[in-house]
Amino acid sequence: MASSTRRTFIEKSVKAGLAIGIGNQLLASCKNSKLNISKPTTGIADFTQKPLAYAYNALEDVIDATTMEIHYTKHAATYLKNVKDAVAELSETQRKEVSIMSLLQNISTYSTKMRNNVGGHYNHELFWQCLRPKQNDNKPDGELLMAIEKSFTSFNDFKLQFSDAAKNRFGSGWAWLYVDANKQLKIGSTPNQDNPLMNVSEIKGAPLLALDVWEHAYYLKYQNKRVDYITNFWQIVNWSFVAQQYQLASK
Ligand code: MN
Question: 214 alpha carbon to ligand 1 midpoint, in Å?
Fold first, then answer.
């Protein structure tokens, strides 16, 4: 895609509300393009908490309403407040340059406070969009399903591998489906609020699907049973959103 065409595409994507995908689009295209990723963009790439697309009780009985409300209005809101505080502590020159993407991609040059909170903000904004009210036989279709089957043998094998990544993450962290630099689907996990966009991460790429395995995400309903939370998670994955992310990241 020529860079002018790509810019037009990005503008259209933003207008179409594919805001979170802009990060992936930028990541996917930054190798060959002169796009300035440090410019603030909309949606995930800005310093706001987007309204949830569903009610707090809409994900029951996989995730209870109280957990959703506390998670969104307290935990996630605090990451955003703290990342704004961390940005306010930067020099005036640095402040002019910052965007969520530029912070994540250069996170090794910032404070631990910035790392934890910009990660926390990005990860939660992505996570909310990865969820939807539960559906029977919830699974992806089309190109995404084919890519998953090609990379992981079958959708079932994919779920097992992703679930293992989520179960085996010691302590607090996230499990991910992401597209690496070779446009291959990969599964992995990160500690704390790190993510595959960070230059310090062991796994690197464009996130498609995120699962929060911090205890605050499930403890009220599941207590110590992280495995049950992960098993039930599959009923509420928003595969339409993940497919949209895949389209943006894999082109
Ligand atoms: Mn969380």
Answer: 6
Q: Looking at the predicted structure, is the pLDDT value of residue 13 above 70? A: no
Would you tell me how many other CB atoms lie within 10 Å of the CB of residue 16?
Answer: 10
| 242 vs 12, more confident | 242
Query: For residue 87, is it left (φ>0), alpha (ψ between -120 and 50) or beta?
Result: alpha
CB within 8 Å of 143: residues ≥ 6 apart? 243, 246, 247
Scanning 180-238, the segments in alpha helix (DSSP H) are 219-222, 226-233
Ligand 1 centroid distance, CA of 66 (Å): 13
Residue 40: band (very low, low, confident or very high) from pLDDT cuts 50, 70, 90: very low
124 Cα: distance to centroid of ligand 1 (angstroms): 6
